[in-house]
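Today's session is about reading a structure prediction critically. Students often jump straight to the picture, but the first step is always the sequence itself: look for stretches that repeat, for charged clusters, for runs of hydrophobic residues. Only then move on to the predicted structure, which in these notes is written as discrete structure tokens rather than atom positions. Here is the chain we will use throughout the hour.
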Amino acid sequence: MTASLSRNRNYRILWSGMFLSEMAAEIAYIAFPLLVLAHGGSAAAVSGVAAVLAGARTLISLPAGALADRVHRKRVMVLAQSIRTAAMLGVAVTVLLGTCPLWQILLVAVVEGAAAGVFVPAENAALPQVVPEHQLPQALAGNAARPFAALLIGPALAGFTFGLHEVLPFALNTSVLAVSFGALAALHLPRRAAGPSAGEATAAAAAPRPGGFGPLLRMRTIRATMAWIVGVNLSFHTLVVLVLIVSGEDGVAPGQMGLMMTCFGAGGLAGALAAGRLHAAALSPAVLVIGSTWVFAAVAGAMAYAPRGVPLGILLGVAAMAMPVGSTAVITCQLAAVPDGLRGRLSGLVGTGSELAATAGPVTAGVLATATRDGSLSILGASALLVVVATGVTSSPTLRRLALPRPSAA
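Below is the predicted structure for this chain, in token form.
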């Protein structure tokens, strides 16, 4: 009889290590701009730091995925956390000494973004090594809760501690990363299979070169689910930025905007909990993916007519609930379809697509806001984009047949 996930020591360590990593990233994302502004930095400098953090992570995703398939994944994670810890400790020391030049902030932002980007594919690819296949949906639902929990905790801690002293968020970040490093050092990662499975042999025969992404891109399931990931993430980031733009233009108080983002994080957490129950109810992955996408589109349409402020934030939270439901089904099917030797590259590919969509979302929001000059119309534009994505998902034969393989074929 398989032990529950709550008793799976290695899963708990892996989950905790990644949660602390994500919380540290959220703290850094807020603390760096605050530090730049506190020392008279311009808006361009603040934007530059944020762009460097996101850009370094995006650029490293694909090579990091290949690295996770070639090197012991625990070593990759531990090394990445040690580098991040040392970099943040350096910032904390220089801030404590009274100076932290912009060049150092930018340099550490590159290191932080790149090391975090290296860590993620290794962690994602290691999950099936510590969790039995039949528990993957439940584990992935638990993993889907992490970024929303980190979003609720990290920025609040960064703002509060910076208000006490500007060195504190960086000291906190260093401590969080050090704890993550210690936890991962205690991780026991079972050895990967020495010989290739049938799927690995087929993929290896199709590969154009060692370590390439060709085998993944030739799989219909991967191509279709990647299109879903990019389309839904692009629409979601467009919608979130539009909500902030519209709320600011309509004079919503900063406190209410903070509550709106709290609704967003709480909705994501609720969706992650619901995802585990829906998968446990043996609902088809195709039903979960198609259904969650249409729910998302419908809620986005309703947001165009909602009163600004907390009511709009509540609907944003409902929209956020749909994301973990669909993404858990998609990632479960991806992991089941891809052999262990390609799972690092799969994570790198997914990370790159998600980050590019996250970058394009604010640009799309700006275009919609400028073109319509009306808050309701711009949100309707984002809803229309989601309708296009949902229609594409529904008309895709691959996604309509999306299902987990039978245990005997896995």
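Discussion point for the tutorial: The chain has 15 helices and no strands.
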